[in-house]
Amino acid sequence: MAPDFILPSNKRTDIILSSFKGSKNVILFFYPKDGSPGCTQQVCSFQDSYEVFKELGAEVVGISSDDVYSHEKFAVENLLEYILLSDKDNTVRKQYGAMGALGLITGRVTYVIDKEGIIRHIFSSQTQPKKHIDEALKILKEIKVD
Fold first, then answer.
1. Within a 10 A sphere around the Cβ of 60, how many other Cβ atoms?
2. Domains of the chain: residue spans and CATH
């Protein structure tokens, strides 16, 4: 089961993971930092495929330790429609084990969580930000067939 949490979002509301249970699959991705080249590439790639994720019954949710103000600016600059959450003290990142190499806090990890709240797939790659989208879409399509 995916650990539940509540975090503030760039949309000025708190998001509770379990609120999606029963209605949507969730693509939950941890990324290192707003505005860095790899992170910008990753969030924009998720945005480019956002309509496909929605068609497959999923919501996309990004998490980093940046504050909500940084997320607001980052979302506006990159025309992001999905939610960015602020995990200032990395509590949720640690809960999910979304650490980088050698236990660094800034891992790039994506979780596919089904409508029942079960983690169906974990993909971790610091150096292939776009592959997170391909992996998530592949698993969502498999879930839809189940």
1. 23
2. 24-145 (3.40.30.10)
